Amino acid sequence: MGRGATILYAARAAGISIPTMCHKDGYKPSTSCMVCVVRVEGNPSFVPSCGAAVQDGMRVWTNTPDVLEARKTAVELLLSEHAGDCEGPCRIGCPANMNIPLMLRQITAGRLDLAIGTIKADIALPAVLGRICPAPCEKVCRRNAHDAAVSICQLKRFVADWDLRRFDTYRPQCEPAGGKKVAVVGAGPCGLAAAYYLARSGVRCVLFDKNEKAGGALRTGIEESVLPRDILDMEIHQILSLGNIEFHGGMEVGLELFDSLCKDYDAVFIASGENSADKYGLKKTAKGLKADLATYQTDRANVFAGGGVIGRRRICVRAVADGKEAAVSILQYLRGQNIAGPEKRFNSHLGQLMEGEMEQFLTGAEKGPRCPARKEGFLTLEAMTEAQRCLHCDCGKADDCTLRKMAELNYARQQTYKGQRKPFSRQAGNSGLVFEAGKCILCGLCVQAARAYTESTGLTFSARGFETRVAVPLQKALNEALTKEAMEKCVAVCPTGAMTKI
Predict the structure, then answer these.
(1) How many domains is the chain built from?
(2) Which pLDDT score, from 0 to 100, does residue 31 have?
(3) Residues 212 and 324 reside in one and the same domain
(4) Residues of 226-238 as b/e, b for ≥16 C-beta within 10 angstroms?
(5) How many CB atoms lie within 10 A of CB 106?
(6) What is the C-alpha separation between 39 and 415, in angstroms, rounded?
């Protein structure tokens, strides 16, 4: 190794991976996060590998239990004061985990063509659910603490209805057929959702239902005044016409037919609703068929079950979520992968707001009251105005946040150290750049990145000690301090979502 080479680069050259967070290649190390620590012989303390020079004959331990525990502690200390949510409370509260904040941004921008894709990535029957869902997402909306929740369910319905009225309705791009076929027993909301997401992944699905028409309890248990049958029929038609899906109505699946399906199909998904668990010869519980609640797999390897057949689903969106999640597990089974079900990501939670923080969230949001719901649904201007009431609680870098990745890698918990978190603050420029100081770990990467653009003032460290923060020199506005190129670079190198662009 050359003169001044660090332990981190020496390890990489030897094919040894050391996790990093505040370090970026080409930038001067700040050793601020301590996630890359190692143990060096003769040194009683842990050493940050990104800044420690390597020496001939040095003996270094990179993966011992005490090193791993030190990294976990470093991450948990950062999380204890982190002022921000990875995902908005609304998305966490949605059983289907729909990306609600993204949908709201797309509605605000008038991009309904994108919003319907965002919705259907997680919810197969949005026009239906937009009419019958009790909206658990709205119950946890942060705006409730100010005036009233954003009308998420009505906005979802608005987009779905807009799509149904189009000649060229939304049709997701499906993966090529892979030669696998799955039998889905029950064409209610759970079975329809499972078939929809399996078909999108290139799996041929055959739906069997005792009724002549698909829909299950949606058709038989809900008044038409609440759920018009033409809406239900149109959404079911969208699913069945996706390709790779067949529907066989008027077929009651008993034990004999079920055994045949298990032999003739690569996998079977049972979604036949409540009070139907006795027909399949599988293990049961007091609630219904016995299935792993994380993967939906039963005691028969190629059989999965979800919805009311494994336990009462009080709300339809939970059954739809079961179908989507079970499809993930079935795909893992068909591909010979470990059956683990949907990925469960780490989520930072801001928790209860402190004084003055609601005003920070309201910055840039529509200040008006909740738009009253109408039986016929929102008009376009109403929908756009209502969507603008969103406080955008989610992190703009949730899918690419190094702190989140390190929390997952180290199995970290946010509540291990219950100190006082940083205050939430949000500074936004008219360029779309957002700076949230409560997420900043003072790694200085943005300060270094901005220095490359001398035509702007850049960024600097302000104050000292515990009061140190990243700030704009000369009291200029954020958008005045950075060129477009500098903004993009600062956002790219920020490891915690403190700097994002909307």
Answers:
(1) 4
(2) 85
(3) yes
(4) ebeeebbebbbeb
(5) 21
(6) 26
**Residue type (1 letter), 493:** V
Q: Which two tokens stand for residue 425?
A: 């603050």
pLDDT (tens digit, 9 = 90+) per residue, 193-236?
Answer: 999 999 999 999 999 999 999 999 999 999 999 999 999 999 99
Whether residue 468 is contained in a domain is answered as: yes
Report residue 502 as tokens.
């909307």
**Dihedral of the CA atoms 369, 370, 374, 375 (nearest 10)?**
-160
Q: At what angle do helices 380-387 and 100-108 cross, to 10 degrees?
A: 130
**Confidence class of residue 472 from pLDDT cuts 50, 70 and 90?**
low
Spatial separation of the C-alpha atoms in residues 285 and 298, rounded to whole Å:
12
Radius of gyration of the chain (CA): 26
- Reported pTM: 0.92
Going by DSSP bridges, is the β-strand pair 267-270/303-305 parallel, antiparallel, or unpaired? parallel
| Three-state SS annotation for 139-192 | HCCHHHHCCCCCCHHHHHHHHHHHHHHCCCCCCCCCCCCCCCEEEEECCCHHHH
Amino acid at 185: V
Q: What is the DSSP string of 252-281?
A: ---HHHHHHHHHHSSEEEE---TT-GGGS-
Residue 242: CATH number of its domain: 3.50.50.60
Q: Tell me, what amino acid is at 456?
A: S
Specify burial of residue 65 (Cβ count, 10 A radius: 0-12, 13-18, 19+).
exposed
In sequence order, the β-bridge partners of residue 270 are: 185, 305
- Claim to verify: residue 325 and residue 375 sit in the same structural domain: no
The domain containing residue 494 runs over which residues? Answer: 423-501
Kindly report the CATH number assigned to the domain that includes residue 468: 3.30.70.20
Banded model confidence at residue 364, pLDDT cuts 50, 70, 90: confident
What is the pLDDT at residue 460? 67
Report the alpha-carbon distance of residue 82 to residue 80 in Å, rounded: 6
Burial class of residue 285, CB neighbours in 10 A (0-12, 13-18, 19+): exposed
259-315 pLDDT, tens digit each:
999 999 999 999 999 999 999 999 999 999 999 999 999 999 999 999 999 999 989
**Cα torsion at 86, 88, 90, 92 (round to 10°)?**
0
What's the CATH number where 49 sits?
3.10.20.740
